């Protein structure tokens, strides 16, 4: 695994922990199909949560929470539809797309931010 992959994996580990501590159950990580990849699929009560994780070493270029463009949001919606079709359809609580931004400063603890319903 290269440095970028290791950084992304570390951010996803922190995000999974954050979601679990918030009471969600992580169902899958790094689910892939021809259309792309979902970083984390979780359950929040009766809802399925498709979670995109963005990890950055510094906010100098772009804050991780700004990384979901309209194109990325459309891709996440398509991936959510595919995942649901392969897993029995939408649950009674519906589907939500969340974003977890992870910022790794040069010094100090990582900063995680969870935005619900971003797309």
UniProtKB/TrEMBL annotation:
<dbReference type="InterPro" id="IPR011335">
    <property type="entry name" value="Restrct_endonuc-II-like"/>
</dbReference>
<protein>
    <recommendedName>
        <fullName>UPF0102 protein STHAL_17565</fullName>
    </recommendedName>
</protein>
<dbReference type="InterPro" id="IPR011856">
    <property type="entry name" value="tRNA_endonuc-like_dom_sf"/>
</dbReference>
<dbReference type="InterPro" id="IPR003509">
    <property type="entry name" value="UPF0102_YraN-like"/>
</dbReference>
<dbReference type="Pfam" id="PF02021">
    <property type="entry name" value="UPF0102"/>
</dbReference>
<comment type="similarity">
    <text>Belongs to the UPF0102 family.</text>
</comment>
């Amino acid at each position: 695994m290269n440095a970028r992959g290791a950084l992304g994996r570390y951010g996803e580990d922190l995000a999974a922990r954050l979601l679990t501590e918030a009471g969600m159950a992580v169902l899958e990580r790094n689910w892939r199909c021809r259309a792309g990849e979902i970083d984390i699929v979780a359950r929040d009560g009766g809802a399925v949560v498709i979670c995109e994780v963005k990890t950055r070493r510094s906010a100098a270029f772009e804050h991780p929470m700004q990384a979901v463009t309209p194109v990325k949001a459309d891709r996440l919606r398509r991936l959510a539809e595919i995942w649901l079709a392969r897993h029995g359809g939408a649950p009674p609580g519906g589907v939500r797309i969340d974003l977890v931004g992870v910022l790794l400063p040069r010094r100090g603890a990582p900063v995680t931010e969870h935005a619900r319903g971003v797309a």
